[in-house]
Write a structure and sequence with these properties.
CATH superfamily of the largest domain: NAD(P)-binding Rossmann-like Domain
Number of helices: 10
Order of helices and strands: EHEEEEEHEHEHEHEHEEHEHEHH
Oligomer: single chain
CATH topology of the largest domain: Rossmann fold
Strand order of the largest sheet: 11-10-9-12-13-14
Largest sheet: 6 strands, parallel
Shape: elongated
CATH architecture of the largest domain: 3-Layer(aba) Sandwich
Structural class: alpha/beta
Length: 273
């Protein structure tokens, strides 16, 4: 197969190497660390960044307008990406087949691992204390929240998980984690050294943010709009780290291989290989 891999971060570089390792022909454009090849008039197998877009541009270091890609695909083209959103309809108008892998399994769960590890690295970069013995609040207990809480616990941090579902509360407590209710925080907020948010909706109001200590480090892991206001954090003198794309920053090889594996698995499942 002849893949065109476009834009993105280090993940796409490693995805390209993985495809080549299986004997596929690979061309790259706008991929960090890879050669730049002129885009042909037509591309059959197209791999976009993960996630794919920033507004009307392909995500990555090079500003590639989505319209530039749309003009080079047709009914024989298959497009792979993540969080494609409304652009899927635009590709559909070109009769192209679109696969959005953003919520696909096992990629989603596997991607939670480099996200959690990246969050831990980022927390250490922004704090003078160890995670060992630190009081950590994890907001949300989905895929990332579960893995992150477990890894923090393994580092001997004191971990509290704020959640909503009774089943999640039972699981967290069975694993030795303290629990609290999102938006309520009956345990209080003044004790935390680190707050990790995984919920893409407001879970900490301005009043609640003001209860945190000035030396508390907040890490925003969720997609927009996130769990708390960055301007409010700055106004309160809190350290707030907006942390999108952690797999691409802290584990690009692992994340890139996972992405490529998911694409090849999907092609095999669809009987396209």
């Amino acid at each position: 197969m002849e893949f065109w891999i476009l834009g993105g971060d280090g993940r796409n570089r490693w995805a390209a190497d993985y495809f080549r390792g299986f004997g596929h022909e690979v061309h790259t454009f706008g991929v960090p660390g890879c050669s730049e090849e002129p885009l042909p008039s037509n591309m059959k197998w197209v791999v976009l960044p993960f996630p794919s877009f920033q507004g009307a541009l392909l995500r990555g270091l090079s500003a590639i307008p989505v319209e530039e890609i749309l003009h080079r695909v047709d009914g024989d083209s298959t497009v792979f990406g993540g969080l494609i959103g409304p652009w899927a309809q635009a590709f559909g108008h070109r009769k192209s087949r679109v696969f959005d892998l953003y919520c696909s399994e096992p990629l989603t769960t596997a991607n939670a691992i480099p996200t959690a590890e990246g969050a831990i690295c980022l927390a250490k970069e922004h704090s003078p204390i160890t995670l060992h013995g630190a009081n950590c609040l994890v907001l949300g207990y989905g895929r990332v929240g579960k893995i992150l809480a477990a890894k923090l616990q393994a580092l001997s941090a004191h971990v509290t998980v704020a959640l909503r579902k009774a089943a999640d509360q039972a699981l967290a407590e069975a694993l030795g984690l303290a629990t609290d209710q999102i938006s309520v925080y009956s345990r209080g907020l003044t004790q935390y050294d680190f707050v990790f948010n995984t919920v893409p909706a407001e879970v900490l109001t301005g009043e609640q943010l003001s209860c945190l200590r000035k030396d508390c480090v907040l890490l925003e892991l969720a997609s927009a709009p996130g769990g708390f206001s960055r301007p409010q954090c700055e106004a309160l003198g809190l350290t707030c780290c907006h942390a999108p794309g952690l797999p691409g920053k802290f584990a690009p090889k692992t994340a890139g291989i996972l992405y490529a594996q998911s694409i090849l698995t999907l092609l095999q499942k669809e009987d396209l290989l």
